[in-house]
Amino acid sequence: MLTIDDLGKRLPYTYKEIVEIDHPEIWDLAQRCLQIAGIWQEMTVELMPLYKKRSMLLNYLKVRSLYGFAHYIGKQVNRLCHELASCDNEQDQDGVDNAKIALADLFEAFGKVDALDIAQDSVEGFRKLEQVIEGFGERTDFHVMDCYSKEGRHSTWSFLDIAGTLKNGESSYDSLWEAVNNSPDPTKPNISGLMESEEDNKMIRIY
Is 145 helix (H, G, I), strand (E, B) or coil? Predict the structure, then answer.
């Protein structure tokens, strides 16, 4: 119900507006998180062709994985912000609290990532990336690349696929090089904005 106190102030009508208006501190942190993740992707887009040209497999896989990790972070931020708005709309305080805790944990882990150091470290960079990703959860995994062979076969590689294959030693490098050479490099960031989906922008409240 619309009250006297509500007159003159902006009211939320959509899931997006619930987070933006009623949880501004979450909104600002989420916006900043996506902005930084986009910067990661811009950096890695520039480095991928350079490492591929120089046949630096581990460094290529590191920045390609960092690109995919940034996309994963963006999806998680959007998912949890949607959860927060949905629970808020349903007046589910436990759900609101859980979503806020999950977002706080995500922001904290994200804030510890030094993407520039990872990208520039040609010796320990991939190991550092593995450690960072483990900090988001033991089985955190995400898509890294699609590969298309000359015969038309399609395969996908996730981060855990790549990390597990690398643990097999140099004998596994041929399969990874084949995958890399049959996978087009991303040329621009692929992170969507915060809560831009149709569901997050349809009207769900009438005052």
Answer: strand
